[in-house]
Amino acid sequence: MERELITYQKFNDIALANELAQQLDSHHIENHIVEESRTFDPGFTFNDTLQTDWAVKIKQQDFEKVNQLLKDDETEDINAIGKDYYLFGFTDDELMEVITKADEWSPFDFVLARKILANRGKPVGDEAIATINEKRIEELKSPDEPQTYWIIIGYICAFLGGLLGIFIGWFLATYKKTLPNGERVYEYNENDRKQGRRMMYIGIVVLVIAAIYKLSSIFE
Fold first, then answer.
1. Cα angle 113-117-119, degrees, rounded to a multiple of 5
2. Predicted pLDDT at 47
3. What three-state secondary structure class fits 76?
4. What is the pLDDT of residue 2?
């Protein structure tokens, strides 16, 4: 089943993951929670302590459906929110940023930002939202900035026969990010992926040569 599902959202609290899973179950949307332990993240940040995440996975074709149902569910709660909630202090431009970058905010904040703008006489209609979402997807498809620093480190490690060089190369060459609509695209540009493949192959060759050399010296 896990091969058919991809990560929709990650949490560092199992209770939050379970809450989302129950919400999805109530709408009969197939989902699965996976515990993930890591000391490495896609931004090439190495952590000294082991971090555990709980990933809620769903089918790729359900992403947009889940995005909408979470927003619909939050609509029922916004009328009860107090005026001291931080979004009420946002300017119109800041509220528009919440809407244009909805993937960086919670569904509740998205719905409330839209309502506040409507109350201020600046409603954002469904057609405008659709256009905003399309532009955001195209923006997120753009590859990350060139990873020059990690390419240099990766080549050094690869020529030294280190497994780190092979790992960095593999990561640069293969890592994909998941867009809000469930589409998966490469995180890094074509040149960085090409460099990653090269350093991976170099690292493997150097590692094999080093292993052969050590074995030959043992049998001499």
1. 115
2. 54
3. coil
4. 46
Per-residue pLDDT tens digits for 31-47: 999 987 665 555 565 55
Going through the chain in order, the beta strands assigned E by DSSP cover 5-11, 31-40, 46-59, 176-178, 184-186
Residue 214: Cβ within 10 Å count: 9
Using CA atoms, how far apart are residues 182 and 7, in angstroms rounded to an integer? 9
- Matching residue, tokens 């998941």: 178
Residue with tokens 């082991």: 50
